[in-house]
Amino acid sequence: MTPQQQPLKGKVAIVTGGSRGIGEAIVKHLASKGADLVINYTSSSSESLAKDLIEQVKTHGVKAVSVQADIGSLDGPKKIVNAAVEAFGKIDIIVNNGAIADFQPLTDTTVELYEKTHNVNVRGPLFLVKESLPHLQEYGRIINISSIAARLGYPGSSVYASSKAALESLSRVWATELAEKNVTSNSVNPGPVLTDMAKSQGQDFIDGLQKSTERAAFHRFGTVEEIANIVGFLAGPESQWVTGDVLSGNGGYLYL
């Protein structure tokens, strides 16, 4: 592979929630660009998925390790960073992809749901970036996977939408705080993508998403590969002048 074909050769990328869905696609795409990978997963049931993924990405001539850690726990971020530093000695790219979603009407929203969601979707990324700072290289990249829900008024999305809006805000703060190190920080804002997380919300939710795509220029769900392509751009050298921004990958989905 030439440097043009693998512009991320020698870079080390952490991808949280990297064993399935959008995270898996991001891992594969960054590997194809030459990045070495730290694949985070939460559940022990995903261990085999992570191991299989490591074997797949090695075909691109890159190295990869996996680490089981709950990003929403107090020690999860540090565990992920320690695994990256132990394996590769540095960090160049952080993709905050790991997230949970549980759509409930406001009347059914609980403190437990709020805390669980914000611990994973907000506190986890915040402290992962903080723990990474001593090892994050100049011209590093922080890429936060947000959601179109952060900017739309989906019924039942109070907790999830607020967590993603908070993540976008953190992303803008990091863009200014880390600029002197030439680190960029951006969010990717996917529209409807039919992932396992979306399917877990039930058929009524899926039907609603399907109907909502009628408002988009492309009347279909997005694919995980299409989101991964956006992440690949932000991870590469061509995006150095892009920071503090939100790139919306939603097929022309119209905002309410």
UniProtKB/TrEMBL annotation:
Q: Which InterPro entries match?
A: KR_dom, NAD(P)-bd_dom_sf, Sc_DH/Rdtase_CS, SDR_fam
Q: Which UniProt keywords apply?
A: NADP, Oxidoreductase
Q: Specify the protein name.
A: Ketoreductase domain-containing protein
The protein's organism comes out as Mortierella isabellina
Q: Which Pfam families match?
A: adh_short_C2
Molecular-function annotations in GO = oxidoreductase activity, acting on CH-OH group of donors
User: Where in the numbering of this chain does the Ketoreductase domain appear?
Assistant: 11-196
- Coiled coil segments of this chain: none
| UniProt xrefs under PROSITE patterns | ADH_SHORT (PS00061)
Keyword Oxidoreductase: yes or no? yes
